């Protein structure tokens, strides 16, 4: 299988499980690198357990998600994920998240995301 097909298969497995909030963890590398939510911090969160912790918190905010667009070239991919969010204050919104992926050695190796952090800040208790 070429790199593009392998990366697409990893992402399909990830997003199918991610939408259900289960069954996506198997495609994440042990030394996974995640950047997102704070553009002033260029250092990634490293390690699968650290990413699982981030997603545990994030999963409380979204009620549904779908892949809006996916572009895969070799071990690199871009995905626009579309999410329905319900915040602790009861506010419901729909929004897109830009997700830039890298695969390596048959696993998803890193993810950088870009989204509207101000909306999260406004609707999350301090």
TrEMBL record:
InterPro entries: NTF2-like_dom_sf, SnoaL-like. SUPFAM superfamilies: NTF2-like. Residues 22-108 form the SnoaL-like domain. This is Nuclear transport factor 2 family protein.
């Amino acid at each position: 299988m070429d790199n593009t097909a392998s990366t697409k298969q990893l992402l399909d497995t990830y997003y199918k499980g991610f939408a259900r909030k289960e069954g996506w963890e198997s495609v994440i590398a042990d030394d996974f690198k995640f950047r997102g939510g704070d553009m002033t911090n260029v250092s990634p969160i490293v390690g699968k357990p650290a990413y699982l912790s981030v997603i545990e918190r994030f999963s409380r905010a979204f009620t549904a998600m779908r892949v809006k667009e996916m572009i895969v070239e070799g071990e690199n991919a871009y995905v626009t994920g579309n999410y329905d969010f319900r915040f602790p204050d009861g506010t419901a919104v729909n929004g897109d998240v830009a997700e830039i992926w890298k695969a390596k050695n048959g696993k998803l190796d890193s993810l950088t995301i870009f989204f509207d952090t101000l909306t999260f800040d406004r609707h999350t208790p301090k």
